[in-house]
Amino acid sequence: MNNTQLFISEHLKLTPIDVEKDAPVEAGLTLDLDYVRHLQPDMRRPLSVFEVKAYYTELLKELKKGQNQYHFVIRRRDDPEERVAGFIRIRWIEWANAHAFLQIAIGDPEVREQYAMEVIELALQYAFGELNLYALTCTIPGHEEQSWRLLEQAGFVREATQREAVYGKGQYWALYTYGILKPEWEANRKEVQA
Amino acid sequence: MIINKELQGELVCLKPLEPEQGAALFKIWDRDAVYMRFLDSEPPNLWVESESKAFLEEMVPKIYFFTINTREDEKPIGSISLGGFDWIAGNAEVGIGIGEEEYRGRGYGTDAMRVIVRYAFRVLNLRRVSLGVFEYNPRAIRSYEKAGFTEEGRLRQYVNRFGRRWDVVLMGILRSDWEKLRKEEQE
């Protein structure tokens, strides 16, 4: 019964933010402009360490205030320095609707290549298995093909295509909305176990 | 009196929302739970007027917030806003509500929507306008279609209400859609 872990998987662990240690590493990750949108949606340049610290301060204030979001830092278990590799955030939770938005940001290219599915599984396990949410929504710009293909692989369904809603890499792209429902997640798990 | 034609339609004209007036209007409109279930996926709630005012004072610089007024007698009957601006992609999200019940279903909302879409493209130089509407509000969906919006998908089973789950319908209008409509109207 009470025998499953939430914050550790085969190759990864989830932890809270460590402001002083994480800020310089996460600032480094924002050199990838596809990553910076996860921190500041309207920002199209890398962030300084100072800005990332200010972002943490605001985020920690928000996390302390209410029960409508959760934030976990992703770290590799085989990294002796346990540097931040990305984060999972479940936000804008509406308890009456058992609905939330899921944000998965992976900045470490190796984690993205090898362990992305592990990250998604940790996120879904927490959202459905622990928070008892019913529906999760995730938006991804069309040009981030690797990301939306992974979501499809994990059982998410493309629910909406907002035409020309984002601009990046020199052109307009659709903004895709992906969703997954708790019964879909449960069915996928049974399939994997069978 | 100065008339801003960009913010005027056939039935309505839009005026900047004054936080004090807005808070007083919302205090009345928020009591209508049927109305509030069309506006928000969160359970209807009641707010202290001073808190609404403080909230609007904070939002007004970030959101383009207007009251919808009848041209006939300048009565405020609802509100409409453009927010969530992405100035790089030229995208924004519109929200609308006709708080005065007797003005619903009579074309005032559709007219206000046409005005804000024209304003978004002609004045703000946006390229698209987006919105979300609940599946259980077909009257609003028809109104948005009349104003030129197209369905772009559905967030499945987002809302838990009236004993079942409902989709949120996402709709959008591109400047090219709007220009095409205008051309057809002129022909």
Key features?
heterodimer, A: about 190 residues, alpha+beta, seven-stranded mixed β-sheet, 6 helices, globular, B: alpha+beta
Which percent band covers the strand fraction of chain A?
A: 25-35%
Rg over C-alpha atoms of chain A, rounded to the nearest angstrom: 16 Å
Number of helices of chain B: 6
> What helical percentage do the residues of chain B reach?
25-40%
Category from helices, strands and their pairing of chain A: alpha+beta
- Largest two-chain interface: A-B, 26 and 25 residues
The rough form of chain A would be described as globular
How many β strands of chain A by DSSP? Answer: 7
Overall pLDDT score of chain B = 96
Total count of helical runs of at least 4 residues of chain A: 6
Profile the largest sheet of chain B. Answer: 7 strands, mixed
Going across the biggest sheet of chain A, name each strand in turn: 1-2-3-4-5-7-6
* Helix and strand composition category of chain B: alpha+beta
Sheet-strand content of chain B, in percent, reads 25-35%
- If you compute it from the alpha carbons, what radius of gyration of chain B comes out, rounded to the nearest whole angstrom? 16 Å
Number of E strands of chain B: 7
